[in-house]
Amino acid sequence: MSHSKETVPLTITTLCAEATLPLRHQLLRPHQGIEQCRYPGDEEAQTRHFGARYGEQEAGIVSIYHVPCPNFSGQQGWQLRALTTLPELRQRGIGRSLLETAVTYAQAQGADLVWCNARIAALDFYQHNGFITMGEPIEITDIGPHYLMVRQIEPSQ
């Protein structure tokens, strides 16, 4: 008897900022109130929020903002924030799909680089996806240590 591996569809869609708040709160800032999960720039015209569905389940989110990168003045920087997937759905390509969707959007807007403040637990993920660590860890109040990470973007054709 052969067993076929079930394929579950992964869908990435654009969300409004409000729709990202439950997962931001649950997965990234459970020790804070939901209001602390609203970020500066969430409602800016160029900001985009993306959500992933794995089958019928909400699986992850990411947001990308037109924000210059520290130490890279003169370049079109876009900041990646709140990239997260449900722990039970990790290692299935969901985070990578969300990341690439956000990077593709920033590239279409003329980005030279995408940057983020990465939690130490996520360093390997970002390094495997083309980001490099810049400098020493920084402490983000009430969240913990992070590294500034940068990925250069090839000009879109």
Summarize, please.
With 157 residues, the chain is an alpha+beta fold. The protein has a single domain (10-152), classed as 3-Layer(aba) Sandwich (Aminopeptidase), CATH 3.40.630. It has helices spanning 17-28, 94-108, 123-128; strands at residues 10-15, 48-54, 57-65, 77-85, 113-119, 132-140, 144-152.
Written account of the structure:
InterPro entries: Acyl_CoA_acyltransferase (IPR016181), GNAT_dom (IPR000182). This is GNAT family N-acetyltransferase. Keywords: Transferase. It holds the Pfam family Acetyltransf_1. GO terms for molecular function: acyltransferase activity, transferring groups other than amino-acyl groups. This protein is α+β, with helices and mostly antiparallel strands and 157 residues long. It has a single domain, classed as Aminopeptidase. It is 21% helix and 36% strand. The chain has 3 helices and 7 strands, in the order βαβββαβαββ. A 7-stranded mixed β-sheet has the order 1-2-3-4-5-7-6, sandwiched between helices. β6 and β7 form a beta hairpin. The radius of gyration is 16 Å and the shape is globular. It starts with 9 loop residues before the first strand and ends in a 5-residue tail after the last strand. The relative contact order is 0.15. The mean pLDDT is 92.
Task: Walk me through the topology.
Layout: E1 10-15, H1 17-28, E2 48-54, E3 57-65, E4 77-85, H2 94-108, E5 113-119, H3 123-128, E6 132-140, E7 144-152
Parallel strand pairs: 4-5
Antiparallel strand pairs: 1-2, 2-3, 3-4, 5-7, 6-7
Domain N-acetyltransferase: 5-154
Organism: Candidatus Reidiella endopervernicosa
InterPro entries: Acyl_CoA_acyltransferase, GNAT_dom
